[in-house]
Specification:
By secondary structure, the protein is α+β, with helices and mostly antiparallel strands. 28% of the residues lie in helices and 18% in strands. The chain has 13 helices and 17 strands. It has helices at 94-102, 138-143, 146-161, 166-169, 188-201, 218-227, 242-256, 273-281, 320-325, 354-367, 385-398, 411-414, 421-435, and strands at 2-5, 31-33, 36-39, 57-60, 79-87, 109-110, 123-124, 177-182, 261-268, 311-319, 332-341, 374-378, 406-408, 437-438, 461-462, 467-474, 478-485. It has a nine-stranded mixed β-sheet, sandwiched between helices. The protein has a two-stranded antiparallel ribbon with strand order 1-4. A hairpin with a 3-residue loop joins strand 16 (467-474) and strand 17 (478-485). The longest helix is centred in the N-terminal third of the chain and has 16 residues, at 146-161. It is globular and about 60 Å long.
Length: 489
């Protein structure tokens, strides 16, 4: 264990430019103005880290080296993926979704869902031509917030993909099947409309669906109501880390014997006046209005913020024993995961990457995987000045030799799906495992010098994935990493 002292933030959201250097080891921490790095020094550390800066002291794991245990062999505790479903800027068909990614197609377009002409950011990864036909009845479809519509379609498509249609589910013990689909922001349109009705017309004009369709647990609840699934059911909301938190918790329910199957993932529909306006206020978004498709550029020196996106990504996670017993098609294996907190700042990552490197190391330990076995990383890579390099620094702490690792950024084409991002990226990771092809990271024109890992720039690459990790990090310092691999009996 290492003792780390970090500077406490001011009561406001943003740091002012400052610099403090440890008298003990000469290391300097990044400080940020909003999400933009103002000043940076190389952080050097070996094994444990001890950095003295005034204010509170936090103890955390400093050494990324982990003595990996053997992988799980008990079929009751091995967790496999038997179905996938999504809603994305490229539609709801998984093969089309991944083909678009492989072809380097950008889904970033001007916003036309509402009048954004006066906004400083006027583009997004906006879903168009969405259809819920066959998945949601017309009456409910008209009432639902898009967040829950995306959830229901992605969730039911995942169940269909797992050969768990309603007639099949009706023959199974539904108390052994749970749902854990989270959202970072929930029904933001339902909430905004309710507040607008209150302000303009008074409380009597608030719809009775205002509260139910606003709260973040409703995706899991509605999916269970529609399918009759009675197992563990709740929602996790950890901003952009949400979906991975859900995968991690869902897998642990299976490992503990609480459930045989968990339907897990994330959903989000925040391309709204409130959502876009709120992230503009945080100074988090790219303002490349003249060329939206080149706006999301992870690790590129000219990046200026992330592009807001939306959608849903859901996996059917199942114990190997149960999957084999019912003759399920096994797509991949979930080996493990981890969650940690930076305990640092509301929007900025720790510059030393300790929270992230600890999370990666813990996920590998949980998975029974050594760092040398990992050869693909689907990175969080949002295209912010601070976040991209902090993630790379953390990766380098865990993986001392990155020569065999390839790393890409799905958000360069889809935008940042917030609570849904980890779900969409888990599907991209699993498709990489299945196809042997990695999608490119778009807009890699002038790579940061510190990024010495192959980012699959601009053109897809053939790559046989041995073990993959998928990273997701959220406002509040929430870190989550999940580990996937090809299924080997």
């Amino acid at each position: 264990m290492a003792t780390i002292a970090v500077a406490s933030s001011s009561s406001g959201l943003l740091f002012n430019k400052s610099k403090e250097t440890s008298p003990r080891n000469g290391a300097s921490l990044f400080h940020y103005n909003g999400l933009k790095a103002v000043e940076a020094k190389q952080f050097e550390a070996k094994g444990s880290i001890s950095t003295s800066v005034r204010s509170k002291t936090i103890k955390a794991m400093g050494g990324p080296a982990v003595s990996a245990p053997k992988r799980e062999t008990d079929p009751k505790k091995r967790v496999v993926i038997t179905g996938m479903g999504l809603v994305s800027v490229f539609g709801s068909d998984i093969d089309i979704f991944y083909d678009k990614l492989l072809d380097g197609v950008s889904g970033i377009t001007p916003i036309d869902r509402f009048d954004a002409s006066e906004y400083s950011v006027r583009f997004a990864g906006q879903i168009r031509d969405f259809s819920s036909t066959g998945y949601i009845d017309g009456k409910n479809d008209r009432r639902l917030d898009d967040c829950w519509r995306y959830c229901l379609v992605a969730g039911k498509r995942a169940l269909d993909d797992a050969s768990l249609s309603k007639p099949v589910l009706d023959t199974m013990d539904k108390t052994r099947i749970g749902v854990l689909v989270g959202s970072g922001m929930g029904g933001i349109t339902a909430f905004s409309s309710g507040v607008e009705a209150l302000v303009q017309k008074g409380y009597k004009k608030i719809t009775p669906f205002f509260i139910p369709y606003s709260i973040t647990n409703m995706g899991s609840a509605l999916l269970a109501i529609d399918t009759g699934l009675m197992g563990p059911n709740y929602s996790i909301s950890t901003a952009c880390a949400t979906a991975n938190y859900c995968f991690f918790s869902a897998a642990n329910h299976i490992r503990r014997g609480d459930a045989d199957i968990m339907v897990a993932g994330g959903t989000e529909a925040a391309v709204t006046p409130t959502g876009v306006g709120g992230f503009i206020a945080c100074r988090a978004l790219s303002q490349r209005n003249a060329d939206p498709q080149k706006a999301s550029r992870p690790w590129d020196k000219n990046r200026d913020g992330f592009v807001i996106g939306e959608g849903a990504g859901v996996l059917v996670m199942e114990s190997l024993e149960h999957a084999l017993k019912r003759g399920a098609n096994i797509i991949a294996e979930y080996l493990g995961g981890a969650v940690t907190c930076d305990a640092h700042h509301m929007t900025d990552p720790r510059a030393d990457g300790l929270g992230v490197s600890t999370c990666i190391a813990m996920s590998l330990e949980d998975a029974g995987v050594s760092p040398e076995e990992v050869n693909y990383i689907n990175a969080h890579a949002t295209s912010t000045l601070a976040g991209d390099l902090a993630e790379v620094n953390a990766i380098k702490k865990v993986f001392k030799d990155t020569s065999e690792i390839k790393m890409n950024g799905t958000k360069s084409m889809t935008g940042h799906g917030l609570g849904a991002a980890g779900g969409l990226e888990a599907i991209a990771t699993i498709k990489a495992i299945n196809t042997g092809w990695l999608h490119p990271t778009l807009n890699q024109n002038d790579l940061e010098g510190d990024v010495t890992i192959d980012t699959v720039p601009n053109v897809k690459k053939r790559h046989q994935v041995n073990v993959a990790i998928s990273n997701s990090f959220g406002f509040g310092g929430h870190n989550s990493v999940v580990v996937f691999a090809p299924y080997n009996p």
